[in-house]
Amino acid sequence: MPGKPGAPDRRTSPYASVRGLTRGLDVLKALNRMESGRGTAQQLSELTGLHRTTVRRLLETLIAEGFVRRSESDDSYRLTLQVRALSEGFNDDEWISTIAAPLMGELLQRVLWPSDLTTPDGDAMIIRETTHRFSPLSFHRAMVGRRLPMLSTAAGRAYFAFCGEGEREDILNLLRSGGGGDEQAALANNAAYVRKLVARVREDGFGSNRGDWLEQRKIGAVAVPIRHADRVRGSLNVVYLSRALSEQEAVKRFVAPLQDIASRVQEAMASPAAARRAT
Predict the structure, then answer these.
(1) Cys-Cys link to 97, which of 128, 135, 139, 184 (CB 3.0-4.6 A)?
(2) Tens digits of residue pLDDT in 182-199
(3) What is the fold of 19-85?
């Protein structure tokens, strides 16, 4: 049976295929097809039909070549900026994660409490990277991929208040339709609440919550927006236990380091050379 149109016919080609290269491309393509361009070695093994040991060996090669990186937060693998030379599988959210990850490690050393990098996911924020796994004060571990309510978490509020007016209205429409649950729909339909929320966060320069998220009443957080190319692209938070710190103490201890790290992430995003080094 002839090969695919445009591809060499392996029956007549004078050159033997390079099995290792074929398998490496299979892993890259599988990773590209996975949601957000990330997956575990086991998932990639199941998707490609390759043994997990083979997949891990191929992934290590791809890491060495700069096309893949491993997140120590959840032991998943994801595409890096380098794959833009090969495919469209890389997106800005992963670009931010790649750049922010090492800087978040520095933030952890400064504040000890865990932090999350989040980007918008429709009617919520999704955690792209986290230091929960490494913080001695962490109370959660598996956080990557978790969705945070837009209007009742520091991460969501920091993004919502500083994003463009049109995008903010689109988010509100999603929430009003019940996409984020009844609690978020009620808040989105409260025009006075929304106005006060946006005004307060913009005046403060950061978002905060302290027991406002019904699912996490014991948790407090502060967050700042991350901007690139005249747009807000995500937010960076520090999460703490409410019984351990007052809100005033949390603001005093965390906001300045957050703003410093966010500023450095933004500088790196604006510099192609810095972005390449981050991969």
Answers:
(1) 128
(2) 999 999 999 999 999 999
(3) Arc Repressor Mutant, subunit A (1.10.10)
